[in-house]
DUF8021 domain-containing protein
Amino acid sequence: MYSLSLLTLGAFAPLLASAADCTREFLKTSADSLVAAQTAGNPALLKPVAEGLVYHENFAAATFKSGILATPLKIDHSRHSLDTTQCATYTELISAKGSKPYVLGTQMYFKDGAVFKIDTLISTTGDWLFNATGTLNWASKEDWGTIAEGKRDSRAVIQAAADAYCDIFSDKTVKVPWGYPCARLEGGSYTGNGGANDKCDVGIPSGVSLVDRRYVIDETVGAVSVFLSFSGIPDSHEFRVENGKLRFVHTITVMSARGNGKGKGRRMTRRFARLP
Ligand SMILES: *[C@@H]1O[C@H](CO)[C@@H](O)[C@H](O)[C@H]1NC(C)=O
């Protein structure tokens, strides 16, 4: 009987071992290598990369050689979320002071100690409310720091807050756990001024479905990155959740992505224009 349980345990050992390999240190080193690669414009600095890597820019297949990573960018701000449960990372990158401004969001997914899937959203001049100086200004004032262990929300609570926010675009009966204060950084525009009276419940468009959601969650900082289709437009919504409530919302919306069609971009711009 004992030997049987040992055998059973043995069968699970490889699974346990690979989960244990996905440490915060491993994820941070890998996510840092993304920043180094982007700074140098040298994709080879990003590691470790699995054979057969799936690489997407603005939700379309792309290559390192012809992609954003081959362009050196002066990185003014970067922040990672590290998800040891899924073995994934999300990185927000702001380049405001270089020759061409960019705000990038990247999700990376790892298996067997190497990244096998990368999704990057690239926003620049012409995208919705794009203003990298504004993004940098507000993002660098916010506190996305580590939350004390006893005060952390569970993954489920963090994801539920994000889902509620995303759901209210198509269903106004959804109860969103608004925090007070709370601020939304959308493109380079901010719904608050960094003060105690900042609010996030200040106007959300209707009739838009936010679907195909892919989450990267880091409970240590209460953060969840959601990559999604915003009525067909490649989009990132990222949330900081504190005590189960929304504290910050960051969005990247790629209006200029290939395949969106200019008509759709213009329609969405008009819809957004009604926001405060
Ligand atoms: C961009 O943001 C900066 C900082 O918030 C602001 O000073 C500037 O006026 C903004 N530019 C535009 C075109 O809105």
